[in-house]
């Protein structure tokens, strides 16, 4: 087990193996097996590229050998920040084949997040695109290296621009051509990769996922979702996000021998055209994207699109309201599947045989018979069925601790290993969960998680800010937006000045507050702490109507 990670207790590991959840398959063996079984079938479609399973397997070989010659070794951590391009699979499976650990960064992350990932994992390399959506990731990589002293190697998908220490992926392939890739003996119980948590503090935590636990969730998800070799899955969300990676995501599709179609963006214009062109059967989106698609089709803008191939639309990442949920079959002509889960583990699905009202009004039930669920009140005691409480869980694919975070783990996990999710839910008699909100202060902006303390820390660096508090304001489109309350130091700085300051500090666009309010002081609790409850009440009362996102902000 990777140092700094918490293993499952031996008795639990033995139980999960005996139940057949953990089969001893590694991520590398996963691809080898599917490439053998589905060699000539199309695995990936992205832009002008179309790769078979055999193609992907061969590319992983070359990437592994080339990265090894570049100096990446088994056990090294490598931060991967790539958009939805086929090369993301080539790189990631190359790293698995080499025995290195991908560390996933989202395309929207900027210097603050990428620098944190590189430093926290002591990354040996960083893999980026050249330019994506108008943003030059090579400049970001250069600034991260200048400020942190690492990582030593940067691999660029596209043009490396002749920068020192930057190697184009095409050169990595050349280095690996005709070379035998390393063949380290991977332990399926060890960590396969690290993901970034949504985080409720200024330093987001890293989530270690093992080969055994993650591939169990992939296999079970593919079965629940009924995937087959005929499945054509549209990845409209960033493909390295947990939801489109494994719920069932591209890994579930690969498990079944189906085809993954990569969308460069989630817009209706892009995705509805791809659904029609590639006869997509399954797609997965967050609620704001689902609403955009519904409005685009219902409004007649895409009335000429043939979407009859679409069988299932999955909606997850944030709660999908019942009224919007009911529109999916009526407008898109497909079945809705609600998904509720977390990168730390637990995933819930509505099933194909659930009554329609259950699909519209709940967020599903757990994958596994061994997913243990507790719904507890503030005193830690379980609440009666049907009453809301905080969701606690443990099971064969829910982590037992974050990477290198012993103090946080002591708060986030119970002594007997239950993960405190921070979600407020109620459980129905059928075992389905209905999400009611969150016990945590984390803001869920259209499925993107914003940690208030992180944004506050950046705001406090501005010379004109005495104090700052960031809270959620309800929004009918995104679910929640962020509102920053500022106690100024002297004359209040301008709103535009503050937002520009946050962008300059390298904060991701979706974390930029949607509202900025200046106040003389904050409401306080009895011990002098800022009362977020009172701030939330104030923002709800003062801003009943949603405001447009500021320039440059967005999910």
UniProtKB/TrEMBL annotation:
Entry-linked InterPro entries: AMP-bd_C, AMP-bd_C_sf, AMP-binding_CS, AMP-dep_synth/lig_dom, ATP-dep_AMP-bd_enzyme, DHB_AMP_lig
Keyword Nucleotidyltransferase: yes
Pathway the protein contributes to: Siderophore biosynthesis
The EC number(s) this enzyme carries: 2.7.7.58
Domain AMP-dependent synthetase/ligase: 32-403
Source organism, top-level taxon: Bacteria
Name listed for the protein in its UniProt record: 2,3-dihydroxybenzoate-AMP ligase
Biological processes annotated in GO: siderophore biosynthetic process
Gene3D superfamilies assigned to the protein according to its UniProt record, in alphabetical order: 3.30.300.30, 3.40.50.980, Luciferase, Domain 3
Keywords recorded for this protein, A-Z: Ligase, Nucleotidyltransferase, Transferase
